[in-house]
Design a protein that fits this description.
The protein has helices spanning 4-17, 37-43; strands spanning 30-31, 53-66, 69-74, 81-87, 97-108, 111-121. By secondary structure, the protein is an alpha/beta fold.
Length: 128
């Protein structure tokens, strides 16, 4: 079971330790993947972008609803987990593929937290 309080504490502490952001290279979201997000965010520890927003497509591992917030855990096939804190999205279930967009707000052991974050289910034909 995912401990939202522990994640919130680790997210807050990580944010306090991040240095002042630099100007983003292109001003748009950083498109990434489950495999690439951890090394990308690790590189931001010394010089994060001004607006650390990311986009990726991932598979849902679990969904824990703590109304009105849903904690959506993503990326089952990698060591790194991505945790998306979003408004209740109870239509999702484990195994669903989703397009994810959110701000990197912190990290925890083997994971990255996106808050705020949003997910959109990708249908079987690859369209949202």
């Amino acid at each position: 079971m995912l401990d939202l309080k522990r994640i919130a504490r680790s997210t807050f502490l990580t944010l306090l330790l991040l240095p002042t952001p630099s100007i983003a290279e292109d001003g748009g979201p950083h498109v990434t993947s489950c495999e690439a997000i951890a090394p990308m965010v690790a590189g931001w520890q010394k010089q994060p972008p001004e607006w650390p927003d990311v986009e990726l497509t991932a598979e849902v591992v679990s969904l824990e609803v703590q109304d009105p917030i849903a904690v959506t855990t993503l990326c089952p096939n990698t060591k790194t987990r991505v945790v998306c804190l979003e408004y209740n999205n109870s239509a999702l279930k484990p195994g669903d593929r989703v397009d994810v967009s959110g701000l990197v707000s912190g990290t925890f052991e083997n994971g990255v937290v996106l808050d705020p974050c949003g997910t959109t289910k990708v249908e079987a034909d690859g369209k949202p």
